[in-house]
Amino acid sequence: MKSILQAILDEVYYPINEGLVENKIISRRMDPDEEYSADVAESDPFKGALADTLLTLIQQVNVSEADKSFGALTDKQREALLTRINNLYKAIGEEEVELEAKPMVYINTESWM
Questions:
Q1: Can you give the pLDDT at residue 81?
Q2: Within the chain, what is the greatest distance between any pair of CA atoms?
Q3: Residues 104, 78: Cα–Cα separation, whole Å
Q4: CA gap 82, 98 in Å, rounded
Q5: Could you tell me the pLDDT band of residue 95, with boundaries at 50, 70 and 90?
């Protein structure tokens, strides 16, 4: 028997804090210790928890020193993860996310006269 927690950890296949994954599962109103099944795998809460967990990977702080990166994802890996994350969010009817915020322009509509 595999738990939902273990199923998400297996899907991530990258070192990540187990407590963080539990938090993502609980925030989607699931029990991390519940048995993982095909029905669970196809459910919106599971897909949402998986997408939320994967999103934390691309939001991690990268540590670089002397042209060496530690625990950092490459830009190509980040883009691949973002595609997977957005596919999951789209499948459950949630908004897509972006790696960087788009610049915004504010226009003052008040009259100067």
A1: 92
A2: 73
A3: 23
A4: 7
A5: very high
Say which amino acid occupies 23: N
Calpha distance 51→46 (Å, rounded):
9
What SS3 string covers the chain? Answer: CCEHHHHHHHHHCCCCCHHHHHHHHHHCCCCCCCECCHHHHCCHHHHHHHHHHHHHHHCCCCEEECCEEECCCCHHHHHHHHHHHHHHHHHCCCCCCCCCCCCCCCCCCCCCC
- Name which of 84, 60, 80, 79 is nearest 71 in CA terms: 60
Most confident of 58-67, 84-93, 102-111: 84-93
Ranges of each domain in the chain: 4-91
Tell me the whole-structure pTM to 2 decimals. Answer: 0.79
Q: Provide the residue type at 67 as one letter.
A: D
Label residue 106 by pLDDT band (50, 70, 90).
Answer: low
pLDDT, tens only, 50-70: 999 999 988 875 555 555 555
Select from 101, 103, 60, 52 the least CA-distant residue to 78: 60
